[in-house]
């Protein structure tokens, strides 16, 4: 039986501390194997397992910067990518 595809999307303006708290809650959920996302319109429960695929993208121009984090997984596929990502302050 085919599972129905479910999507969740949330857009809002947040300060850096609020985003930090959200990211911390997501990382805690990843560590526990269950991430629950909800707002006043919808909810989705994700259960990450096995190897997770991480994609980090960043761009910057004169007046706009963007940072995108994407974590994905597939229940039947383990595709290791052995590239080390370093996140931190500039030296």
Write up this protein.
This protein has 91 residues and is an alpha+beta fold. The protein has a domain at 16-72. It contains 1 helix and 4 strands, in the order αββββ. It has a two-stranded antiparallel ribbon. The radius of gyration is 16 Å and the shape is globular. The model has no long low-confidence stretch (mean pLDDT 88).
Mean model confidence by pLDDT = 88
* Gap between N and C termini: 53 Å
Q: Quick one: overall form?
A: globular
| Total beta strand runs | 4
Biggest sheet features: 2 strands, antiparallel
Uncertain stretches: none
- Proportion of residues in extended strands: 25-35%
Give the SSE order as H and E letters: HEEEE
Report the radius of gyration as a whole number of Å. 16 Å
Main-sheet strand order equals 1-2
Estimated helix fraction: 10-25%
Number of helices, counting only DSSP H or I runs of 4 residues or more:
1
- Structural class assignment: alpha+beta
SSE diagram, text form:
Layout: H1 16-32, E1 35-38, E2 43-46, E3 53-60, E4 65-72
Antiparallel strand pairs: 1-2, 3-4
Short précis:
By secondary structure, this protein is of the alpha+beta class. Helix content is 19%, strand content 26%.
List descriptors.
91 residues; alpha+beta; two-stranded antiparallel ribbon; globular
């Amino acid at each position: 039986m085919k599972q129905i595809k479910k999507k969740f999307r949330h857009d809002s303006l947040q300060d850096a501390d609020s985003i930090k708290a959200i990211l911390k809650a997501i990382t805690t959920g990843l560590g526990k194997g269950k991430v629950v996302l909800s707002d006043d319109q919808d909810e989705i429960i994700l259960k990450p397992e096995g190897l997770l695929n991480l994609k980090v993208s960043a761009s910057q121009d004169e007046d706009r910067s963007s940072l995108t984090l994407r974590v994905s997984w597939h229940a039947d596929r383990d595709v290791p990518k052995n590239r080390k990502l370093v996140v931190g302050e500039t030296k």
